[in-house]
Amino acid sequence: MSIHKPVLLKESIDLLNLEKGAVVVDATFGGGGHSREILKKIGKSGKLIAIDADKEAIENFKNEFLSKADNLFLVQDNFANFKNILGGQGVTTVDAVLADLGYSSDQIENQKRGFSFLGEGKLDMRFDTNQKVTAEYVINKYEQIDLERILKEYGEERFARKISEKIVETRKKYEFKTTKQLADLILQVIPKKYQGSRIHPATKSFQAIRIEVNQELRNLEIFINQAIDSLSIGGRLAVITFHSLEDRIVKNMFRENARGCICPPDFPICQCRQIRKVKIITKKPIRPSNQELADNIRSRSAKLRVCEKI
């Protein structure tokens, strides 16, 4: 049974405007919390395609879900392959798409997966355990300039240079194997006066490395474009983000797709060929309620944005 609590559950399901018989994609199945509610809304005449790059997420819930719903189709794949996944299901257009970009509590609590710095586990951090690049590879093999860039761009870590220098210096003595080794090094590098905040000093660095390992931002951009193209008219795309880099991509891509012709008014014929594809439903992102924050502290950074195909 999953220990993961789905974030912004009611808000996201309500804003998808689901009807009986709808064809829906849960692009990040995770612990299955959103999928359970989607299945209730679309009924037996609907169809839900649930995707997750994590094989364990699919395997853990396959028996539970498939025994209860014959209109659910579980797919182990990355949502960047969105159109190919739909094609494999014999689908070209869908009525709604949901993507919750947070990694689940099941992944965090499983120390073997290496997502958390609070215990000691392998430096892994892969969503798809079939892929070759791991956090261990990134830490031990990447050049210092690349490590610094990743920590700075993906983690917005102010001590990126010092941390990357210390990693390269230390790995001359031994290879990094565990999350504790990396977290301890970061604690040594970051000055004590910057370690008093409510977030752990290793948080930003671990986020940056996880993003690099899974190519999360690049895949997100690919996914959004394909999801919008695959929506039926009136269909909605809802995305839940958990840090500023993700949210910025979602916000900007929604705006780009909601913008029509940008040619000067005196142009007799459009030259930019930019077509307005969506309208933005959430002018400002939806945030968790005070009650949800009290019930689930991990929801504190969540933001929900929704657009509709026109």
Salient structural properties:
310 residues, alpha/beta, Rossmann fold, DNA polymerase, domain 1, 2 domains, 13 helices, 7 strands
Summarize the structure.
By secondary structure, the protein is an alpha/beta fold.
Helix/strand structural class:
alpha/beta
* Spatial sequence of strands, sheet with the most strands: 3-2-1-4-5-7-6
How many structural units, i.e. domains?
Answer: 2
Taking all Cα atoms into account, the compactness measure Rg is 21 Å
In the CATH hierarchy, what is the architecture of the largest domain at level 2?
Answer: 3-Layer(aba) Sandwich
- Could you name the CATH topology of the largest domain? Rossmann fold
What's the order of the H and E elements? HEHEHEHEHHHHHHHEHEHE
CATH top-level class of the largest domain: Alpha Beta
Report on the structure:
The chain has 310 residues and is an alpha/beta fold. It has two domains: 9-106 and 217-309, 3-Layer(aba) Sandwich (Rossmann fold); 108-214, DNA polymerase, domain 1. The chain is built from 13 helices and seven strands. It has a seven-stranded mixed beta sheet with strand order 3-2-1-4-5-7-6, sandwiched between helices. Helix 2 links the parallel strand 1 (23-26) and strand 2. Helix 7 crosses helix 10 (203-214).
